[in-house]
Amino acid sequence: MTRFVLRRLIALIAILFCISVGAFFLIHLLPGDPTVTILGPNDTPENRNALLKELGLNLPLWQQYLTWIWNVLQGNLGQSFITHQSVSKIISSAFPIDLELIILSQIMALGFSIPLAIASARRPNGLLDRASTTTSFGMLAIPPFILIVVLVLLFSIHLHIFPGPGSYVPFQQDPISNLHTMILPAIVLMVGSTTIYFRLLRADLIATLQQDFITVARSKGLSDRYIMWRHALRPSSLSLLASAGLNISGLVAGAFVVEYLLAIPGLGFELVNSIQQVDYLSVQSITLFVAVVIVLINFIIDFLFTVVDPRIARE
Amino acid sequence: MSNIPTAADSIPALTGSSDIAKKKRFDVGLVFWIFTLWIAITVLAAIFASLLGLQDPNQGNYDILNQGPTTAHWFGTDDLGRDIFSRVIYGARVSLTVGFGALTIGMIIGGTLGMIAAYRRGPVDIIVSSASYVMLAFPALVAVIAIVAFWGHEIWKITIIIGVASIPLVFRVVRAATLSYATRDFVTAAKSQGATDWRIITKELFPNVLPAIISFYLIGVASVIILEGALAFLGLSVQPPTASWGNMISESRTYLSQNPWLVLFPSLAMVFFLVALNLIGDILRSTLDVQESQL
């Protein structure tokens, strides 16, 4: 077990190292000049050079990389070139927003897909099963941006149920209106997850229900409901868990379209902004932070695998 | 020696299961053909858009701004009086070029590497597999957005960028699909007859992996079309006035309350096409019985 954890840890550090190098060189090798963004296109070359020196951008790339990574290891993620805000501050104000979106959307997705999958798997090819399978297929093909535009048109412009884009309120300031504004984006993010979870769990449940131990449980006279929840659900939830891991890590910075369209200042929103402003340090540090979070999520999911199926840990 | 058939002849690719697969292959149902026809029509319309006698997609007419559907303009006109029907068809060019183009790049490079890695194993496999894991761990969207933002928004650049970004994923899928065949008897038979590695990969392994590749390809194209749309929303796809489905949907936001037709038709075009791709991919996968658990 110790060896297993140790080997995982070394692999993790190697991957994080590669990502830090990738994030750094990706953005530095690309054309784009931060001095133009900061000083405007008409400033003198002398001022530009002075600024490059001040930001440390005149040093060789490898030296810049080492300085950055050394600071990061000491917990200093650097400062935004443009707003002079510290990157840790940007992350600490943006990341909770993503967390909230992820938690809201995943609770809704699981709360919706698990009962639906169970009901569908009870009678495969029944009316409910066919209806929900077909619907889920259609939903899978609707891109999030179309969904947002349509939902905003329907719920914000016509029905006035949810506030439109740009009405984000921080949670600390007003929890009720915050939740009110977050429901629409959470619904958009929920749809994609729900369809995938439903399809996976339904397929796995149908396969599990054909196994011998279910027949044994039935012949013991246990009720269908008991068999479903106590016997079938647990061994059927491994692919669901795996895909939940993928989905959640995808949402850490991947909700950017939703955030960008509704002007919600989450990590994806900040990242797209920093990229467009050629803000080297912010992009590097946020990317690295996102990678660390994704790695941690995968770690937790791996652990949950062993909880759901203890045989995995014994191997 | 002529009476000894080659491995490919004597041991058909799908040993034993070939009859079943063939029987199933004809039994894909009417839905499959309807959606295939839909894809064919969309692709042909996009390719031959300039021969269809459509109105100029970028030619505005200030007398007819934001009109609903009429007989002259089937899908109505947009905020500059441009014909939406014509723009949807010309817009398909961008979305389809990026979708099919990017996945083709990914397939050629990632697919070749995947088959070689699964067949040769050893150091080649270890090196390419590790590289793919590192690339997959990197937030791909961040990379795509950053490179598009700095390198440029031309359609061929976007295609190449997304294509390269898809390589590690394609590699993993093709490698996994190939692995299950690489140790089968018909490969050993071919090897013992002195077939070259090239011949084994192209003649023995490729035909077997093809079904898995095709269904993954179609579903991949659907995801790339969505990605192109997302880039359009960030202003990082082809620049106006060039129409793409993503561009049109993104631009429609400004006039959403006055003219909902603007968002309706490009969205329907995109969603129908995505449904068709996903459905065909899914039917092919279940009919040809590609085992997902091996991925």
TrEMBL record, chain A:
<keyword id="KW-0812">Transmembrane</keyword>
<feature type="transmembrane region" description="Helical">
    <location>
        <begin position="140"/>
        <end position="162"/>
    </location>
</feature>
<dbReference type="InterPro" id="IPR000515">
    <property type="entry name" value="MetI-like"/>
</dbReference>
<feature type="transmembrane region" description="Helical">
    <location>
        <begin position="9"/>
        <end position="30"/>
    </location>
</feature>
<keyword id="KW-1133">Transmembrane helix</keyword>
<dbReference type="Pfam" id="PF19300">
    <property type="entry name" value="BPD_transp_1_N"/>
</dbReference>
<dbReference type="GO" id="GO:0071916">
    <property type="term" value="F:dipeptide transmembrane transporter activity"/>
</dbReference>
<dbReference type="Pfam" id="PF00528">
    <property type="entry name" value="BPD_transp_1"/>
</dbReference>
<keyword id="KW-1003">Cell membrane</keyword>
<feature type="transmembrane region" description="Helical">
    <location>
        <begin position="238"/>
        <end position="263"/>
    </location>
</feature>
<feature type="transmembrane region" description="Helical">
    <location>
        <begin position="182"/>
        <end position="201"/>
    </location>
</feature>
<protein>
    <submittedName>
        <fullName>Unannotated protein</fullName>
    </submittedName>
</protein>
<dbReference type="GO" id="GO:0005886">
    <property type="term" value="C:plasma membrane"/>
</dbReference>
<keyword id="KW-0472">Membrane</keyword>
<keyword id="KW-0813">Transport</keyword>
<feature type="transmembrane region" description="Helical">
    <location>
        <begin position="101"/>
        <end position="119"/>
    </location>
</feature>
<feature type="domain" description="ABC transmembrane type-1">
    <location>
        <begin position="95"/>
        <end position="305"/>
    </location>
</feature>
<dbReference type="InterPro" id="IPR045621">
    <property type="entry name" value="BPD_transp_1_N"/>
</dbReference>
<dbReference type="InterPro" id="IPR035906">
    <property type="entry name" value="MetI-like_sf"/>
</dbReference>
<feature type="transmembrane region" description="Helical">
    <location>
        <begin position="283"/>
        <end position="308"/>
    </location>
</feature>
TrEMBL record, chain B:
<keyword id="KW-1003">Cell membrane</keyword>
<keyword id="KW-0813">Transport</keyword>
<feature type="transmembrane region" description="Helical">
    <location>
        <begin position="30"/>
        <end position="52"/>
    </location>
</feature>
<feature type="transmembrane region" description="Helical">
    <location>
        <begin position="155"/>
        <end position="174"/>
    </location>
</feature>
<feature type="transmembrane region" description="Helical">
    <location>
        <begin position="261"/>
        <end position="280"/>
    </location>
</feature>
<dbReference type="Pfam" id="PF00528">
    <property type="entry name" value="BPD_transp_1"/>
</dbReference>
<dbReference type="GO" id="GO:0005886">
    <property type="term" value="C:plasma membrane"/>
</dbReference>
<feature type="transmembrane region" description="Helical">
    <location>
        <begin position="126"/>
        <end position="149"/>
    </location>
</feature>
<keyword id="KW-1133">Transmembrane helix</keyword>
<dbReference type="GO" id="GO:0055085">
    <property type="term" value="P:transmembrane transport"/>
</dbReference>
<feature type="transmembrane region" description="Helical">
    <location>
        <begin position="96"/>
        <end position="119"/>
    </location>
</feature>
<protein>
    <submittedName>
        <fullName>Unannotated protein</fullName>
    </submittedName>
</protein>
<feature type="domain" description="ABC transmembrane type-1">
    <location>
        <begin position="92"/>
        <end position="281"/>
    </location>
</feature>
<keyword id="KW-0472">Membrane</keyword>
<dbReference type="InterPro" id="IPR000515">
    <property type="entry name" value="MetI-like"/>
</dbReference>
<keyword id="KW-0812">Transmembrane</keyword>
<dbReference type="InterPro" id="IPR050366">
    <property type="entry name" value="BP-dependent_transpt_permease"/>
</dbReference>
<dbReference type="InterPro" id="IPR035906">
    <property type="entry name" value="MetI-like_sf"/>
</dbReference>
<feature type="transmembrane region" description="Helical">
    <location>
        <begin position="209"/>
        <end position="236"/>
    </location>
</feature>
